[in-house]
Amino acid sequence: MTTTAGSVPHGGIIVGKPKWRPLESEGNLAMLLLLPTIALLLMFIAYPFMRGILLAVTNSKVGIIGDFVGFENFARLLKDPIFHAVVYNTFLYTFVTTVFKLILGLWLALLLNRDFKFKAFTRAFILLPFIVPTVLACFAWKWMFDPTFSVLNWMLFKLGVVAAGAGVNWLGDGDLAMLSIMIVNIWRGVPFFAISLMAGLQTISPDLGEAAAIDGAKPLQRFWYITWPLLMPVTMVVVLFSVIQTFSDFQIVYVMTGGGPANATHLFATYAYQLGVGTGLLSQGAAVSLAMFPLLFGIVIFQLMYIRRVETR
Amino acid sequence: MSNVTIRQVHKHYEDFHAVKGVSLEIKDKEFVVLVGPSGCGKTTTLRMIAGLETISEGDIMIGNKIVNELAPMDRDIAMVFQNYALYPHMTVYDNMAFGLKMRKFDKAEIAKRVNNAADILDIKDHLSRKPRMLSGGQRQRVALGRAIVRNPQVFLFDEPLSNLDAKLRVQMRVEIKKLHQRLATTSIYVTHDQVEAMTLGDRVVVMKDGLIQQVGEPLELYNNPANRYVAGFIGSPAMNFADTMIEEAGNAVYATNPTMRIRVPEQIAARMGPHKGKPATLGIRPEDLHMATGADPEDLSFDAVVEVAEQLGSEIILDLKAGGSAMVASVEPTVKVKPQQKIRLGIKPTGLRFFDAKTEAAI
Q: Could you tell me what percentage of chain A is helix, strand and coil, using 3-state DSSP and rounding each to the nearest 5?
């Protein structure tokens, strides 16, 4: 065997010039694989978000590009009584529905976590409200709440609660309309809570409940001292998702009340839509939806911090 | 502390008869081990004693009181689980204190008892830690601590060592034994490991298919197994079995097959009457076999071929073929053999056991 000058014999292995293989570097490969995600995020999250901010600081309307006006739109919102109602509505709507979704969802989850016949079928069935397209479901609910033709009023009449022709005007009265959309939101949201919390319950070893039973804890104590604390991280994540969803809810209100009667059921999203698209005041609509941002951001930060604390302890 | 009586207890699941009439008398302060393969009903029996499973039929009494309908917390028992079942969100201290808190003990008494238990189990330094920061052995100590602080009438152990590695298992076995010697609390211990059963139990209950096969002190099970199953289950390496025919020749009785002609010892031969001319299973423990010398009589030895020799230092385990049956012998570490070598093995005269070929009961 001969070796040419300058090359080093490696036990007979010929060492050639390495080929240019940029994808063998982990950094390059990672960038390449991340690219689609980054592009999507930029296109559908970052761009609209920045666009929203830019819109909110102009006096742009449909057809008019508008000029920079600073925080004028936000200042106007602070004096807008409808916006005040929107803030109140949104907080009330989010708080009440989340509490009920959590209580009902937890109750369902605890029931579904037991052993019974047709368990798998029931678990799948529970998910129905979650699977049905929201808009379709809302149209059905709208019919059910209709003062003249509604099944609810028919039932109340048959039960003797209301007189004939004097049915409850569910969506025509401000408070009742709010109650109605809350009921629909709860109906739609409970399955998500139930299924997620049930998944959380299934990660808790049944041995713990048995050990606690032997330790002398009664069923309620077992729930309070063992199940509930161990379920807390899952609960917080579920509540976090639900709060974000509910806070920015649009479909239910849009279909059922359109924000009415007399703006009594407007939430951030519907009011922003009505101002921006309905009325054509693009910049004011953008300001309303941006006003939601710091509030949601605060809630998310708080909950994420809590989740982190629970997970590291 | 108290005795436990199990009387004709059955457990039926929907289409499975898990426990088929188990009766057992456990004396005060006794350490009883239920041992058997998985699915033999030992854990179900323990869980029925604990009150975690309902009793389909029969009675369980703790301290002369029928507890069939009592909730687990009212039975005054403590249980140690296989996977420790420590509350992951509580500190070691709170884990041990939980049962006392639920029973409304005052704070000072709880602290006294928990600290005392932590002292005994040597986990004092870990009281403020969470279970996930502990090693497997430490977790099992905490689980033991949780059991002993309550000072219950009965301890129940459900395979408490099977999640530990081999070395730790031996160590914890000794600790459990020490703990029992110190506290003298009636203990019922479930395991599938016959070594644990032999070393821990005052008495051992061998179970199979929901039935008790034999109850006895460890040595009694080893020396006088009631049937072929117990004989094969107790002892390691397991007892060798060979199919033989019982034949009478002159005034002696022989167990024979194509490779063996073993003379049945007189005291057993006396019981062989109804078995003459019928098949019987011959059982010999590996430790009752040795390399035959001229001193070994012809009818107490047999030929075999070495397949594998495993040198363990203190002994050599020989895997052999004797005619059609595989055999294992434990011989002196000085023996020199090679694979495929033909050797003759002698049997210790007291090492012969016979089992009815059909009923498998000891003869």
A: 70, 0, 30
Q: Identify the closest residue of chain A to B87 by CA–CA distance.
A: A208
Q: Within an 8 Å CB–CB cutoff, is residue A212 touching chain B?
A: yes
Distance CA A264, CA A30 (A): 50
| Neighbour tally for B183: CB within 10 Å | 16
Q: Look at residue A313 in the predicted model and tell me its pLDDT.
A: 55
Closest to B303 in 3D by CA, of B284, B323, B280: B323
Q: Which 3 state secondary structure label does DSSP give A164?
A: coil
- Give the per-residue SS3 of chain B: CCCEEEEEEEEEECCEEEEEEEEEEECCCCEEEEECCCCCCHHHHHHHHHCCCCCCEEEEEECCEECCCCCHHHCCEEEECCCCCCCCCCCHHHHHHHHHHHCCCCHHHHHHHHHHHHHHHCCHHHCCCCHHHCCHHHHHHHHHHHHHHCCCCEEEEECCCCCCCHHHHHHHHHHHHHHHHHHCCEEEEEECCHHHHHHHCCEEEEEECCEEEEEECHHHHHHCCCEHHHHHHCCCCCCEEEEEEEEEECCEEEEEECCEEEECCHHHHCCCHHHCCCEEEEEECHHHEEECCCCCCHHHEEEEEEEEEEECCCCEEEEEEECCEEEEEEECCCCCCCCCCEEEEEECHHHEEEEECCCCEEC
Q: Residue B102: list chain A partners with CB under 8 A.
A: 212, 215-217, 221
Task: Report the gap between the CA of A218 and the closest CA in chain B (Å).
Answer: 8
Say how far apart CA A127 and CA A195 lie, in whole Å.
Answer: 8
Kindly tell me the burial class for residue A158, based on how many C-beta atoms sit within 10 Å of its own C-beta (0-12, 13-18, 19 or more): exposed
Residue A42 has pLDDT above 90, yes or no: yes
Residue A2 has pLDDT above 50, yes or no: no
Tens-digit pLDDT profile for residues A52-71: 888 888 887 777 777 788 78
- pTM beyond 0.90, yes or no: no
Q: Which of A208, A213, A216 sits opposite B87 (nearest CB)?
A: A208
Identify from B13, B73, B96, B100 which residue to disrupt to test chain A contact, counting A C-beta atoms within 10 A and taking the largest count. B73
A244 touches chain B (CB under 8 A): no
Q: Is the confidence at residue B66, as pLDDT, over 80?
A: yes
Residue of B nearest to A207 (CA): B85
Q: Across the interface, which of A207, A214, A226 has its CB nearest the CB of B73?
A: A214
- CA pair distance B186, B12, nearest whole angstrom: 27
Determine the Cα–Cα distance for residues A153 and A265; give it in Å rounded to an integer: 21
The answer to whether the Cβ–Cβ distance between A216 and B85 falls below 8 Å is: no
CB contact under 8 A, B89 and A211: no
> CA of B73 to nearest chain A CA: how many angstroms apart?
4
Rounded distance, CA B183 to CA B186, Å?
9
d(CA A271, CA A264): 11
Give the phi and the psi of residue B25 in degrees, each rounded to 5: -115, 115
- State the ipTM, two decimals: 0.83
